[in-house]
Amino acid sequence: MSLLVVTIFLALPVYAVQRLGPDYQWLGIYAFVVSAVAYWVYAVDKRRAEEGLWRIPEAQLHLLELLGGWPGAYLAQRRLRHKCSKRNYQVVFWFIVLAYQFVAYDSFQNWRYTNVAVSYIERHSDHRR
């Protein structure tokens, strides 16, 4: 079931990257490596938790997710039963996953929402320096 969920949430970002063409195939390799590292780091943190040792800060786990390791992190959460019951942690995790979905969707819209945000920031920033 975990693989099905990851596949569903990967579909939109993968399709968005494929639209960029073969020059961007390295992104798939990058995502795989970062996901594998995220899974490994989760496993290390789980082992440390069980042994009562120093833990890996949650901010570092979230950074790995944000850098593209969220698929590996999701699989580690489910398979290792680690961080999956911490509500605050899960809120940030799912925000990261949804951000990836939004960026992929926005790419299909020719960056419409990103352009609106950039225009808003430019209009409301202080240019009087």
- Uncertain runs are none
Q: Level of helix content?
A: over 70%
List SSEs in N-to-C order. HHHHH
Radius of gyration: 17 Å
What structural class should be given to the helix and strand makeup? Answer: mainly alpha
The count of DSSP E runs of length 2 or more, i.e. the number of strands, is: 0
Provide mean pLDDT, rounded: 92
- End-to-end Cα distance, whole Å, is 55 Å
Strand content range: under 5%
* 3D shape: globular
Query: Into how many domains do the coordinates divide?
Result: 1
Largest sheet: none
- Quickly count the helices: 5
Primary descriptors:
5 helices, 129 residues, 80% helix, mainly alpha
Task: Summarize this entry quickly.
This protein is mostly helical. It is built from five helices and no strands.
Task: Describe the protein.
There is one protein chain. By secondary structure, this protein is mainly α. It has one domain. The chain has five helices and no strands. α1 packs parallel to α4. The chain is globular and about 50 Å long. The N and C termini lie far apart (55 Å).
Architecture blueprint of SSEs:
Layout: H1 2-20, H2 26-51, H3 58-80, H4 87-108, H5 112-124
Helix pairs in contact: 1-3, 1-4, 2-3, 3-4
